[in-house]
User: Fold these one by one.
Assistant:
Number 1:
Amino acid sequence: MFRTLLQRTAIRGTPRTSLKQAIPIARRPFTTGKPPSSGSPSIPAMLAVASMGFAAYWTLVKSREGQTMPRRQQKADPQPAAAPSNNNEEPPVPAFSADKVTVVFVLGGPGAGKGTQCDRLKNDYDFVHLSAGDLLREEQNREGSKYGDLIKHYIKEGLIVPMEVTIALLEQAMRESMEKDNKYRFLVDGFPRKMDQAIKFEESVVSSKLVLYFECPEQVMLERLLKRGENSGRTDDNIESIKKRFRVFKDTSFPVIEAFEKENKVKTVSCVKPVDEVYQEVRVIFDKMFEQ
Ligand SMILES: Nc1ncnc2c1ncn2[C@@H]1O[C@H](COP(=O)(O)OP(=O)(O)OP(=O)(O)O)[C@@H](O)[C@H]1O
Ligand SMILES: O=c1ccn([C@@H]2O[C@H](COP(=O)(O)O)[C@@H](O)[C@H]2O)c(=O)[nH]1
């Protein structure tokens, strides 16, 4: 089941050309497939290479300008979509309709208090709480999982697991809640943590309605995580892993929040105060946006 979903998720969505172009060009190793010639290249050859280089650079610059989430027309039906018809030219069709399926991304640094706030919100506003980290840990511990070792390594190192795995787990969990429990509102906690995840999820699963960002100074998060680490049993609640997670948050995850900000989707709440006080602020936002 998981593998099927994984394959489907992997093929369903293909990022919009401009963003897709940026990544391969930036990462593609420069190789001609031939050993370098020892003689001097001809002037026409040099001009051709220079113009190709400029074209690639221009495409890259253009595709990164004001990088925001791609917008897609939504399907009317919230139920699992029909088999995707992707031929790399057509934009992918999201699995669920944003008219019927509500996704709130809950973001913030490690230990900011995302899970704590989600625990309260899910009851008061009838949301399903899906923690990407919890889903990955579950998959890591699932007997027979072919991703167990990979996930274990990424979590310990504070790195971001390849998006196909996480998106497949999220989509599967959402589908189960819809089919079994008739639940269509989701707090997606700790995801997306990287631009590629954000783009792929919005294109191939569903577009998010709101991004709740819990702002918290590193020192406060550090104290919370070390305290939690006294009995959490998590392999990443130790000082070495925490430092790596902070770096990944700053370098890779925070730009995702900035990209969503450009779409005016982000509501920021400081997470420094006691849990109840933080929750009061979150409630103001949810009362305005979602019926209880
Ligand atoms: N406002 C708060 N004041 C004090 N302690 C808090 C507050 N919010 C959460 N905590 C505590 O901080 C720790 C981290 O909280 P939580 O697990 O909710 O963070 P998180 O953002 O989900 O972390 P992670 O991203 O690592 O999963 C927990 O032990 C929690 O009890
Ligand atoms: O989208 C995601 C979410 C999480 N991870 C990995 O899991 C750990 C722990 O996540 P928490 O949200 O703190 O529970 C995180 O450091 C990543 O290694 C991920 O790869 N992708």
Number 2:
Amino acid sequence: MKYLLMYNPVSGRSKFKKKIKQIKRFFDKRNLEIDIYESKKAGDLELKAQHHAKDYDVFLVAGGDGTISEVVNGMMKSEIRPSLAILPCGTANDIAAILGVPRWLWLALRMYMKHEPVLMDINQMNDRYFVYTAASGVLSRISYDVSRRKIKKYGYLAYVFEAMRDFVKEYNYPCHIECDGKVLETDCMMILGLSSNRVGGMRLINFSKSKLNDGLFEIRVFTSRRRFRRFRLASSFIRGGKKLREDFHLVGKHFKIETDDNILWNADGEAAEKGNIEIRTIEKALSVYVSPRRKRKQF
Ligand SMILES: Nc1ncnc2c1ncn2[C@@H]1O[C@H](COP(=O)(O)OP(=O)(O)OP(=O)(O)O)[C@@H](O)[C@H]1O
């Protein structure tokens, strides 16, 4: 087995670099070949993943959701794809949590030595690939609007502060959604799409019933029709993403969403598209390492 460790030195609180020597030792001890690559700037890992996908069996990716998303975008552009194993060292680490990867590095590495990878769906927003979330409207900009300086200083709390500021802003925009033959037209304050039950470090146990390999994606349209709308939205999140009467929940393989040109879309926590989008799910597109528990529940 040939591994490539790719890491983003600025993920989370920028502390991963210190662990590299120990990781190298872990692999040397087991006579496993590992190359190491540090990203130099945003976008770097996508190109590295695309051009070297055929040269490795496993991409070991150390970073947060943005870093993993970059690598996945690179891998999806290659015909031959190695397996993906994550070492969580970002701020929210949603993707790692969805796959049940332990925060503790040694437990994660041992898990990768012991278990086989499984095939997981990957989603596409226009030309860009994403793993687990697409969103617009309230709260959807915070993951990429918060400065790295604040994340380094406050960690996850930096997202919480920014969420509180964004929550009081006015969001109301039209959307026309086509999903596998169904049509929905409404005004909304947020559209949240998930392939699992986690976003922004929160577990939304009542949001989704989909598996990670069933070719389906779920979208919740939070309308802006009722009074005290923000409080109702907050109460839905507090109750694990419980659906409210005035909201719509769609499940499908292909979504066409038309909205205002200035509406920004977030994909896996990064700024993605503006205006109209199409979302497709590519079934069982990528081989990933998951914990045995998640494998039973989510696959
Ligand atoms: N060498 C680099 N210098 C600056 N930015 C980088 C570099 N390599 C990658 N990036 C960018 O850093 C951003 C943040 O990375 P990442 O998402 O992994 O960390 P995070 O935001 O702390 O974690 P999370 O997304 O889990 O909250 C990504 O948008 C990525 O494209």
